[in-house]
Write a structure and sequence with these properties.
The longest helix is centred in the middle third of the chain and has 43 residues. Helix content is 77%, strand content 0%. It starts with a helix and ends with a helix. It has one domain: Orthogonal Bundle (Proton glutamate symport protein), CATH 1.10.3860.10. By secondary structure, it is mostly helical. Helix 3 runs parallel beside helix 8, helix 12 packs antiparallel against helix 13 and helix 14 runs antiparallel to helix 18.
Length: 428
């Protein structure tokens, strides 16, 4: 277990350049990015390469980090498929319960506030074709299940298919645990070394993070503008308030029931949360989130399984957004959807949302498919696009928060959460 603490400590230092903490630098960079996007919208697009550099560096380390930590976490501790299967079953049950709650809150909110009333959808032939193409990409439950199994590890690695990497790593780890002799120790030692190096790699990349984050939010504000919030402010407000309500009435009680010290948890996940919010990408915050949860006291084997799995199956913010956005389009189109139809749509979204990738604006693919299936105008997406980037930041950050909490809850459920006694007493 010594390697866990050492790797966790390799995260971005609490005090960095000029004695200012990492979180503070992120906030400063976000403010600077907003100001640039607001005051110099024509210049803001020039910042995109700096944002892309950060995202590309993050993507380059995800596969080796994930594969090495998951294999070592399972095979290095003598776990068998039965133990892994038990953790997987518990995780899936938890994911389904929480995401269902998110869908319900979104559905209630959009029917109470009715943000789509008073708006109109103007058909556009060109955009319709584009949105139909998006709808065609919508995964079904069968396709998601099939897509979980990689036909090539290297293809999955090249495309950063997190769920496929997790599947391959689990099978590889179980097979490795059954190997006897020096081969097992050689492979484990090599993967442990890779894991240690990749955590140091994370620390180097995070030194650049404030620049990439400031650039990303500058591009977003420069493209969308702050004025767009005025026309669709009701929709944005509905989503943000609904997400806050979800956190308060679902995630907080879950944390209390699981005896998770809330303030300590927030302090631990604050930095990856800020990264997810500012970049609108859960993937960008993944390495930092892994380190944060290890630091919190979750064993590496649980972190490296639950967190990436949650990126495909526990997207609380995205599922809540999909519930609001789909009914919003119906309201804007003047279509009165019965509660029964809305519930059927939510059931569909509950299944198809499992295929949402942890990348910016991937939810639009799922939304396009849902609208097409229920004969709602795809032009409604054009109405949402103006503020989607702003909404994406909120839903992505809640995705990250929910998955970090799920990791801690699973560790508690497994009896392996190592929290100082004084923090447990505060949580109780």
């Amino acid at each position: 277990m010594a390697h866990q603490s050492s790797s966790a400590s390799s995260a971005a230092p609490s005090k960095g350049f000029l004695g200012i903490g990492f979180s503070s630098w992120i906030v400063i960079s976000m403010v600077i990015g907003i100001l640039i996007g607001w005051l110099a919208p024509d210049f803001a697009p020039n910042l995109k390469p700096f944002a892309n550099i950060f995202l590309r560096m993050i993507k380059s380390l995800i596969v080796p980090l994930l594969f090495s930590t998951l294999v070592v976490g399972i095979a290095g501790h003598g776990d068998d498929m039965k133990k892994v299967g038990k953790l997987a079953l518990r995780s899936i049950i938890y994911f389904e319960v929480v995401t269902t709650a998110a869908l319900a809150i979104g559905l209630i909110a959009v029917n109470l506030v009715k943000p789509g009333l008073g708006l109109s959808i103007a058909p556009d032939a060109g955009s319709t074709e584009e949105f139909q193409a998006l709808a065609a990409k919508t995964p079904t439950f069968a396709s998601v299940l099939e897509h979980t199994v990689p036909q090539s590890f290297f293809e999955a690695a090249a495309q950063n298919e997190v769920l496929q990497i997790v599947f391959f790593a689990i099978i590889f780890a179980v097979a490795l645990s059954r190997v006897e002799g020096p081969s097992k120790s050689i492979v484990l030692g090599g993967l442990q070394a890779i894991s240690d190096v990749m955590f140091k790699f994370v620390g180097i990349v995070m030194a650049y993070a404030p620049i990439g984050i400031g650039a990303a939010i500058g591009v977003t504000v420069g493209k969308s503008g702050l004025g767009v919030l005025l026309s669709l402010g009701k929709l944005v407000g509905t989503l943000y308030v609904s997400l806050i309500v979800f956190v308060l009435i679902v995630l907080v009680p879950v944390a209390l029931i699981a005896r998770i010290p809330i303030m300590r948890f927030w302090r631990t996940v604050k930095e990856p949360w800020l990264i997810a919010f500012s970049t609108a990408s859960s993937e960008a915050a993944f390495p930092q989130a892994m380190q944060a949860m290890e630091k919190f006291g979750v064993p590496r084997r649980i972190v490296s399984f639950v967190l990436p799995t949650g990126y495909s199956f526990n997207l609380d913010g995205s599922t809540l957004y999909l519930a609001i956005a789909s009914v919003f389009v119906a309201q804007a189109a003047g279509i009165d959807m019965s509660i029964g139809t809305q519930l059927l749509m939510m059931l569909t979204l509950m299944l198809t949302s499992k295929g949402v990738a942890a990348v910016p604006r991937a939810s639009l693919v799922i939304l396009s498919g849902a609208l097409a299936q229920f004969n709602l105008p795809l032009e409604g997406i054009a109405l949402i696009l103006g503020v989607d980037a702003i909404m994406d930041m909120a839903r992505t950050s809640v995705n990250l928060l929910g998955n970090c909490l799920a990791t801690a809850v699973m560790a508690r459920w497994e009896g392996e959460l190592n929290i100082p006694a004084e923090d447990v007493a505060v949580a109780a």
